[in-house]
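Dear colleague,

Following up on Tuesday's group meeting, I ran the structure prediction for the two-component complex that the binding team flagged. I've pasted the input sequences exactly as they went in, so you can double-check that nothing got truncated or mislabelled along the way. The structure tokens for the whole assembly follow below. Feel free to forward this to whoever is handling the docking comparison.

Inputs:
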Amino acid sequence: MYERGWRRTLTLALFLGPSLLGMVLFVMGPILASLGLAFARWDLLTPPEFVGLANFRALWADPEFWRALRHTFGFLLGYIPLVMLCGLGAALVLNARIPGRDFFRAVYFLPVVTAWVAVALVWKWLLNPGYGLVNHLLGLVGLQGPGWLFDPNWAMPAVILTSVWKDTGFVMAILLAGLQNIPREYYEAAAIDGAGGAARLRYVTLPLLAPALYFALTLSLINSFQVFDQVYVMTGGGPAGATTVLVERIVKNAFSYSQMGYAAAMSWFLFALIFLSSWALTRLQRRAL
Amino acid sequence: MRKLWVVLVFVLLANGLARTTINYFSFTTDQNHVKDLEALIAAFEKENPDLEIRYTTAPFDSYFTKLQTNLAAGSAPDVFELNYENFVTFASRGTLLSLDPFLRQDTSLNNAFYPAALSAFRQNNIQYGLPITFSTVVLFYNKDLFDKAGVAYPNANWTWKDVLSAAQKISNPAQRVWGVYQPVQFWEFYKVARQAGGGLQVGPRVQIDTPANREALRYLVDKVRLKVMPSDAEMSGVSNEDMFLGGQLGMLYSGIWMFDKFSQAKFKWDIAVEPGGIRKATHFFSNAAVISRTTKHAEAAFKWVKFLAASPATVKTRIDRAWELPALSLAQRALFDAYLKRPLPANREAVFDSLRYAITPPVVENQSQLQDIINQELEAARLGTKTPEQALADAQRRVEALLRR
């Protein structure tokens, strides 16, 4: 077990080999291939052909791409503040000593581990303007609910609400862990100094929670750039193209339009976008803390 | 005893080695017809003991992804199905085997097919596929709702005006009953544009935004505005076919593939040739079996294609099991007798009468992108976020940009 030298290397290689092989063949390989494809035209039927930067130039000139990018940012701007606030609220409440705390923690986390397709289908039904529960409840308090997924103006808000519902538990779990790492003594000291609940939140909880908040924010940001499943199942990019997003465009171009090169170029653009924004967020965090 | 085993193993081995396997991809075989396909395969293998068919089915939505992946991976099925719209892409990329050498040898197929169906699968004068099925769209109508409103039943001479006036009399949105449903999408639009005297042109010159086409789109979207057709919110995700089956639609434009489903209706219904505008135009959909250019068993593959397209066993199975119609020449009327004699709907002749006005859709190499663009603009017009004029102008501009690429 504790040999040195080549025997040890061999043992390690033997144990790590299978998973490394899978990783290289099925993850790294395709990723590198897609980098090559981004500079090629490939329709899957005829061999790929090198076209230089043509795919990126086409991207720049493609109004469909810009529209999808706008929709993606629209999703991000609606989703991130809401999911962070809801997650923080849930974490604060469920960090306090209230009855049934463990039960509610599990309940709020349940949507996170539920498959997106199932969640999207249930919400599609809940938001149905004709026989859905949401509009029925709105009707009980005298409000005429919108057409949600059938209305170009309401489809994206509906997708955002569903995503917030699903991901609140995820943000909550990260923040709960962060909250539990704050030593109790700080609160006691603050209380002795006469700090009320609001002051304790502002001057003790939030500053000490900042690393967890940044972590949750970064993950949510990455997730929202990659928004796809919910859009694909709930609206398919409709109505009238009101909810097309980047990943949906990538899938469309790759598998419906047979433009693998163009789709690969779009994927790498998305990668750059995610990389740069996460990097900027990390810099911001270092400066702030 | 041991000897017997050895002999048995050898016989099996020899048998297995001698049999040629043909891989076949199908999207026209849905779950209701898998058993029928298996029966056809059994009949074929009985006729050709040296051949074995191994089939794979996939629903239309995922079929082409699967097929393209297999082609890209170099594991193309020997025989596969294509619909007319996708045929052009596959033929022009050189993925299909010419059937001409086989057709020159085998004269039994001369004049066997419905001419438009056969020529649909020819490109640059080379025959790449044999049509295996065809279908068309007709006007379905709920007789009970017509009787209740005191309106005469549709007939082959009806025009748009008759549809609208009947729909207005039948509609009663408060009771959740509407006069008519006609989808507003690519398929309906190119046909209705022709009925209006226009048409979609995407050849060298793009002609989408024309006066006749604008009139066609106004006719399509006006039905919602006039409240004779349910809006998306009113339908709430229930399909138009289910609404018709639920007795909520007076008239429905739909395909003859719905006969089976509608036979469970609790009201009397029938069909008519689709009403026209200033002229008549009807859909013509056809699917073909084609052979991959890379197949190692071209002869055997052609046998299977021919069997699928024109064998008496296939024709009988398709008609008896209500599994689309074989695309055979109508001169062989006797073949279709069984089809015409089936009880519902009574006016089955309308299916064949429709073929007189059949048109085919415009097809380009980037077909699915073209359809997505046009569908998006039509949807915007239907939802009222754009006027029909705006929508067509945008469609024209976007399709021009697409074809320039």
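The first helix of chain B runs from residue 2 to 18.

Cheers,
M.
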